[in-house]
Amino acid sequence: MSKLHSEFYKKFKKATLALDAAKFMQVDSYIHNTLRNAMQQELPFIGEYKLIIKTRILREINALITIVGIAIVSISCFPNGAEYIDELDIVYTNYDDSYNFKNKSTFAVPDKITKIDRENFPDGPGFEPESKEDSLDTIPTIIQ
Amino acid sequence: MLIDAYMGLPESVPPLFWTVDAGYETERQALGRDRIKIINDYLQGYDSIDEVEADQLASLSMKIT
Question: What is the ipTM of this complex?
């Protein structure tokens, strides 16, 4: 465009006055520079669009992590949720009311977990072993 | 038209002025078409622009600047 202006400025000047030629070039430059600037603002820079996509994906991942984090915290802090392990797992106890625990200074914990199935509990739901010997694989280990 | 109105040239302006103006407008429009083609090529190949394409587009852009 500057070459065109340079070439035609001389021609305009010959055809009329230098003042009119300068006036023409000035307003013509103003109009076309304004239009070019408007177009330029709409064009993405090289690589800009990929950067925008990357930034957007990162934002979405961060938002997702935040939402999941809030959900986990909300569920874990829910006032009516499970507060003790026996609210989450099935716990079987066979408490003997007549046993005098005061005579003992040791306690025992089982070293195995009994799987509740037909093999270990052949009578199915409702089966209640009366002593620990009835429950398979629950031989306690005495800890001194 | 806009420029004509702005210029406010008298009716006595030499006919040669309008001849030069017409020649200028023809060449300016050709440059405008070239610029639009460069922009179009740039946008169409934007996702996969490589070394060669970038060089061609930059060189063409500078030619018509």
Answer: 0.81
A108 beta partners: A142
Q: How many CB atoms lie within 10 A of CB B35?
A: 19
Q: Do B2 and A31 touch (CB under 8 A)?
A: yes
Q: Do A46 and B49 touch (CB under 8 A)?
A: yes
Shortest Cα distance, chain A CAs vs residue B27, angstroms: 8
- Give per-residue pLDDT as tens, B26-60: 999 999 999 999 999 999 988 888 999 999 999 99
DSSP H stretches of helix in chain A: 2-15, 18-42, 48-76
pLDDT band at residue A3 using 50, 70 and 90 as cut-offs? confident
A8 contacts: CB under 8 Å, gap ≥ 6: A25, B20, B23, B24, B27
Dihedral pair phi/psi, residue A89, rounded to 5° = -110, 160
**CB of A10 within 8 Å of any CB in chain B?**
no
B19 contacts A4? CB cut-off 8 A? no
Q: Between B3, B9, B27, which is nearest A27 by CB?
A: B3
For B57, the enclosing helix (H) or strand (E) is helix B51-64
C-alpha span between B47 and B44 (Å, rounded):
8
Q: Is A110 helix (H, G, I), strand (E, B) or coil?
A: strand
